[in-house]
């Protein structure tokens, strides 16, 4: 008799069961994600790179200042010069969709957790697990359910991206000045008006920090998900690794750095604007 | 004035607090039952139920046009009491009526309506939204009520003009001094044109000079607009300066309610007496409290004709009486209510008044 505990022995049948019984649901989820992702990717790749790069640079310069516009020009130009434009845009699309879904899950849950200490207590160990289990491990059930491709990559990325966003949302809403909420009640505002006109604007700076974290962690995970056929820059890294092609691995790696720096600086700049306003 | 306000009918009572209790803790219903049935005190409730009594058995009425001050030190329950008037804190026992309606029985929408239109609040922390301009802050109450932009901005501009901030409407709160911020808070309360304004220690955080100025402005504005106010403060000077009537609170209990003059002349207990000891009487004690009856005066000074004395009204304060006494021969000052001679202030009775010992036979209302 051994005392070895094997969670896999429990989980694998559970995943199998889910697969057989909820196949329709998962297929539906996969179809929606594929459609959104495909649309975004097509849109990003529709204009030629030589049109897209200056366009983005100009828009960023107008919105957030010329330094960031220049940064966008350099970062995107680098991806183009490395001959990884298409892959870079695939990665940006994957990150965007993952972050959007992560935010849609994490913000409402985080707000609820800020209001209900019990929910927060229940969520905390779950979030700890989501953040500390090595990311490769989520890929296994994700692939079992959604098979290889971009969808399991996005699912695994969401699992990785939700915790920071959720924790910071809870923090943001817990830090809101008590007197401002009391003001809302005292002037006869509805709970909805208090949420939208008092709580959300006050929470924006901390929420932006959460978003920044969410974007960077999602990018890291999306790259890792190249292993399961997510495409994009991650696929190039994986190819470089499996073929032992130093040059390809390095080019893809540097392109990832360029995309990461760009996304980080842009979200930070947006954050600064949120603070000022 | 005193005589007039005593004759009130029920319509004139805007806020009516009837033996209101607030108990904090996990076993509030049991603690309230024990209080009602066994008459437990604050420390017994804490010992037996682990509940803290915030406000106990508070009864007060605020009349139309009146500024009612609640004075107490921190922890006296005054902030809890004021929050029960608009149900930000629900009472554990007793009833609060605002304009004749039991606040605890209102539904959520009715309660919001009451707060939005009839009973505004100004906070010690000011509670301005930092990401909105002064104008948007002043209009915030109207905004959440769904008033159209044009109309609410016009109303908010008018309210800001009343507090002297017309030139600052496009600025952000962080650009304003503490005193100006609190004016915005007041303008926001005025913008919804409520009958009652709850002031929760609004001027406590300001420096003394600005505080004085705002106290005077607040009183003037409230009176000229015909509003009623409940004003919380820990400063007796402030309560006296602003309030028509003052309630003194200690440990959750209202110890005494009365005009400043009543409280100073007749402190209900040693605690109140100690509080009022340091208060300057010069402007608080009035002629009607220090005068002696005409007959007594005549007996003391036969042959002096009261018509020869300088005269004054019953509402003249000690400061004015001292001036009159210094200017006159010192035989006394005739106190006339209209044409009728109601009493005489002699130098002797005046000195008693200054000192605080009560003049024999002095009538006060």
From TrEMBL, chain A:
Keyword line: Cell membrane, Membrane, Transmembrane, Transmembrane helix, Transport
GO cellular component terms attached to this protein's record: ATP-binding cassette (ABC) transporter complex
Membrane topology: Multi-pass membrane protein
Domain ABC transmembrane type-1: 88-267
Keyword Glycoprotein: no
Single GO molecular function: carnitine transmembrane transporter activity
TM ranges: 20-37, 68-85, 92-115, 135-162, 207-228, 248-266
InterPro entries named in the record: MetI-like, MetI-like_sf
Biological process annotations from GO: choline transport; glycine betaine transport
Protein localization: Cell membrane
Family membership noted in the UniProt record: Belongs to the binding-protein-dependent transport system permease family.
UniProt-recorded name of the protein: ABC transporter permease subunit
Organism: Amaricoccus solimangrovi
TrEMBL record, chain B:
Membrane topology of the entry: Peripheral membrane protein
Catalytic activity of the protein: a quaternary ammonium(out) + ATP + H2O = a quaternary ammonium(in) + ADP + phosphate + H(+)
SMART domains on file: AAA
Compartments where found: Cell inner membrane
Keyword Protease: no
EC number: 7.6.2.9
Cross-referenced InterPro entries: AAA+_ATPase, ABC_osmolyte_uptake_ATP-bind, ABC_transporter-like_ATP-bd, ABC_transporter-like_CS, Gly-betaine_transp_ATP-bd, P-loop_NTPase
Chief location of this protein within or outside the cell: membrane
Residue stretches making up the ABC transporter domain: 40-276
Record text on subunit structure and interactions: The complex is probably composed of two ATP-binding proteins (TmoW), two transmembrane proteins (TmoV) and a solute-binding protein (TmoX).
Family named by the database record: Belongs to the ABC transporter superfamily.
Record's protein name: Quaternary amine transport ATP-binding protein
Source organism (scientific name): Amaricoccus solimangrovi
């Amino acid at each position: 008799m051994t005392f070895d505990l094997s969670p896999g022995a429990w989980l694998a049948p559970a995943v199998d069961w889910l697969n057989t019984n909820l196949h329709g649901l998962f297929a539906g989820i996969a179809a929606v994600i594929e459609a959104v992702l495909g649309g975004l990717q097509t849109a990003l790749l529709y204009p030629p790179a030589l049109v897209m790069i200056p366009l983005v640079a100009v828009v960023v310069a107008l919105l957030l200042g010329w330094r960031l516009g220049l940064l966008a020009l350099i970062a995107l130009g680098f991806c183009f010069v490395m001959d990884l434009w298409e892959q870079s845009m695939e990665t940006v699309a994957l990150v965007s969709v993952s972050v959007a879904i992560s935010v849609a899950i994490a913000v409402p849950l985080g707000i609820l957790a800020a209001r209900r200490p019990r929910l927060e207590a229940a969520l905390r160990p779950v979030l700890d697990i989501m953040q500390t289990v090595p990311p490769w491990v989520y890929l296994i059930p994700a692939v079992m359910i959604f098979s290889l491709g971009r969808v399991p990559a996005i699912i695994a990325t969401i699992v990785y991206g939700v915790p920071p966003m959720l924790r910071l949302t809870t923090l943001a809403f817990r830090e809101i000045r008590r007197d401002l909420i009391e003001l809302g009640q005292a002037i006869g505002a509805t709970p909805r008006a208090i949420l939208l006109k008092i709580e959300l604007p006050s929470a924006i700076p901390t929420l932006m920090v959460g978003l920044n974290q969410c974007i960077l962690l999602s990018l890291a995970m999306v790259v890792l998900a190249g292993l399961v056929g997510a495409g994009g820059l991650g696929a190039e890294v994986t190819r470089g690794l499996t073929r032992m092609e130093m040059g390809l691995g390095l080019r893809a790696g540097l392109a990832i750095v360029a995309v990461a720096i760009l996304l980080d600086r842009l979200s930070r700049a947006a954050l600064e604007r949120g603070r000022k306003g | 004035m005193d005589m007039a306000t005593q004759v009130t009918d029920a319509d004139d009572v805007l806020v009516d607090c009837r033996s209101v209790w607030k108990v904090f803790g996990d076993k509030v219903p049991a603690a309230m039952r024990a209080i009602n049935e066994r008459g437990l005190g604050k420390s017994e409730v804490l010992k037996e139920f682990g509940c803290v009594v915030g406000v106990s058995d508070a009864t007060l009425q605020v009349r139309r046009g009146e500024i009612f001050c609640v004075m107490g030190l921190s922890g006296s329950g005054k902030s809890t009491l004021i929050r029960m008037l608009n149900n930000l804190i629900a009472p554990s026992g007793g009833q609060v009526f605002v304009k004749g309606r039991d606040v605890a029985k209102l539904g959520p929408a009715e309660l919001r309506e009451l707060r939005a239109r009839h009973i505004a609040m100004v906070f010690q922390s000011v509670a301005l939204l930092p990401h909105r301009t002064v104008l948007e802050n002043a209009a915030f109450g109207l905004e959440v009520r769904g008033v159209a932009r044009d109309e609410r901005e016009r109303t908010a501009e008018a309210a800001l003009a009343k507090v002297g901030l017309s030139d600052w409407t496009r600025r952000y709160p962080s650009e304003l001094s503490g005193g100006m911020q609190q004016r915005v808070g007041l303008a926001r309360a005025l913008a919804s044109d409520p009958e009652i304004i709850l002031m929760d220690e609004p001027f406590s955080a300001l420096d003394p000079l600005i505080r004085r100025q705002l106290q005077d402005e607040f009183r003037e504005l409230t009176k000229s607009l015909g509003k009623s106010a409940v004003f919380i403060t820990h400063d007796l000077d402030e309560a006296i300066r602003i309030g028509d009537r003052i309630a003194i609170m200690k440990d959750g209990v209202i110890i005494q309610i009365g005009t400043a003059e009543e409280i100073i002349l007749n402190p209900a207990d040693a605690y109140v007496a100690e509080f009022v000891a340091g208060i300057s009487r010069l402007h608080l004690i009035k002629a009607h409290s220090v005068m002696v009856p005409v007959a007594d005066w005549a007996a003391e000074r036969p042959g002096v004709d009261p018509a020869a004395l300088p005269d004054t009204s019953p509402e003249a304060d000690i400061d004015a009486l001292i001036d009159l006494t210094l200017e006159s021969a010192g035989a006394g000052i005739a106190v006339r209510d209209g044409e009728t001679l109601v009493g005489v202030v002699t130098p002797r009775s005046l000195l008693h008044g200054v000192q605080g010992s009560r003049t024999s036979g002095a009538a006060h209302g």
